[in-house]
Specification:
By secondary structure, this protein is α+β, with helices and mostly antiparallel strands. Helices cover 37% and strands 21% of the residues. It has 2 domains: 15-191 and 251-340, BirA Bifunctional Protein, domain 2 (2-Layer Sandwich); 351-438, Rossmann fold, CATH 3.40.50. It has helices spanning 15-32, 46-52, 58-63, 79-86, 102-111, 161-178, 193-207, 216-224, 238-242, 253-269, 313-316, 331-340, 361-373, 387-396, 407-412, 430-438, and strands at 36-37, 43-45, 66-68, 94-97, 121-130, 142-151, 183-189, 274-275, 287-295, 303-309, 324-330, 349-355, 378-380, 399-405, 414-419, 425-429. Strand 15 and strand 16 (425-429) form a beta hairpin. Bound molecules: adenosine monophosphate. Adenosine monophosphate binds next to strand 6, strand 10, strand 11 and helix 12.
Length: 447
Amino acid sequence: MLKAVRGTRDLLPPDTDLWNRVEAKVRDVMERYNFHEIRTPIFEDTQLFSRSVGEETDIVSKEMFTWEDRSRAIPAVPVLEVASGTRGRFSGQSLTLRPENTAGVVRAYIEHRLGDKGTLQKLYYIGPQFRRERPQKGRYRQFYQIGAEIIGPPSAGSESPIHDAEILEMLATLLDEVGLRDWQLQLNSVGGADDRARYNQALREALKPLLHQMCADCQRRAETNPLRVLDCKVPKDQPIIEKLPKVSEYLGEASREHFAAVGAMLDTVGIPYTINERMVRGLDYYTRTTFEFTHGGLGAQSAVLGGGRYDGLSESLEGPKAPGIGFAIGEDRLILALQSQGETIVEKLRAYIAPLGSGMNPHALKLARELRREGVSVDIGDEVFRLKRSFELAEKAGARFIVIVGENEVAAGQFAVKNLATAEQVQVQRAELAAYLKDSNPQPRKS
Ligand code: AMP
C-alpha cells in the first residue's frame, strides 16, 4: 500500500477545522496591524538559501531538498541564448524546496523594487516549508509556517526598535487571541555586523584549546562560523558551550541601546520576557534582536515560533539597504500546543435535508440550494432512504436539525424540522426556515 512519505502527513477533518480557525484569526490580526499577504514560489534557486540562511547552518548543510533542473521548455537561460540555439539543453540550475520563507520574501522585495515606494513593507505569508530533518512529534519534513516581515529603506524607519516591539506585541496578541495559554517569550540580541565579527573572533579564540573535546561539526564551525557552535545539540559539548563568552559582552553601544529600547517598550506594554543569551537562532542572517516563543505542551520541540532582525540580508542578496525584522510560527506546533490544552473545534452541521419518497430529490436539492444561499450549512440525503435511515445518517453527519421534504411538506410550503439533540419536532414555514435553522437556541413553536 502506498503511504504518505516519511516526515509528511495528511491533515484531516476535524483537525483542519482548527487549522482554518487559526489561519482565519491570523488574517484578522494581520489586517489590524496593516500587514498584507505575499505568496512566493515553493521552490527557488538554491543559492538564495545558501547565501542568506548560510552554508554552515544545519538547514543548508544537511536539510534541504535540492535537485538539478532538467526542464528544457522554460529554461532559466536568458531568452537570447534560447534564440541562438541552446534550446534543448538542460538548464542545470540547482533548485531547492524552500526551507523557510524570509529569503523568498526578501528576494521578491528586491526583484520587484518594493523599497522604491519609500515606505515600510509589512508582508505576511502562510504556507508549507521543507527540511530533511529526523521526523518526530512536532518535527516534520513538510511543515507549515505563518510568518511576517517588516522591511524597508532606513529612511522609512525600518531599523527602529519600535518595529521589533510592534512585532513582539503583535505575536503576543495573536497567541492570546488564538487561545494559547502560558507561552513564554525568550529574547536576545546577536548584535550588528561589527559586534558579530568581534564576538565570532572571541569565540574562535575561546574554542581553540577546547576543540579536541568537541564534536566534528563544532570543530569545523569553530573555524568557518563560530556562532553556529552555539546551535550544537550534542550532549557532551553542552558544558563547554555554557562556559563560552556571552554575546552581550561584545555588543557595541548602538546595539546595546537598540536592545534596551525594545525591552523598555515591551515593559511599557506589559509583555513579559526572559533574556536567553544562548539563543542565537540557527540562521546566519539574523542581526540584533532574536526571539523565540515557547510552550510547555510541546515536549522536546518547544519552540512555537522564532524570528529576529536581518538588517544586512537584502544587501547580501545584492539588493538595496533594507533592514527588516520578522518571524515564523511553526503552525503544526501551534496546533499541537492548542490541542495539548484540549482545544478542538466541533463545526456543527446545521441541517440535514431528508427527501422522503420518490420524486422528492429535486425538491430537496432546491431547498438545500436556497438555504445554503441564505447562509445555513446543509447536507442532503437521498429519496431512496427510508426515514429511519435518514435519521441515522443525519446523526452521523453531526447535524443539529433534520428537515423532512415529503410531498405534503412541499405542497403546504412548510416543513417538519426535528432538533436531533432535544427530539423536539415542529412545523416551520418556508419563509422562516433559514432563520429558524440559524438560530442556535430556537424557541419551541406551535404549528
Ligand atoms: P526557523 O525557521 O528554524 O526559525 O523555525 C521557526 C519555527 O518553525 C520553529 O520555531 C518551529 O515552530 C517551526 N519549525 C521549524 N522546523 C520545523 C519542522 N521540521 N517541523 C515543524 N515545525 C518546524
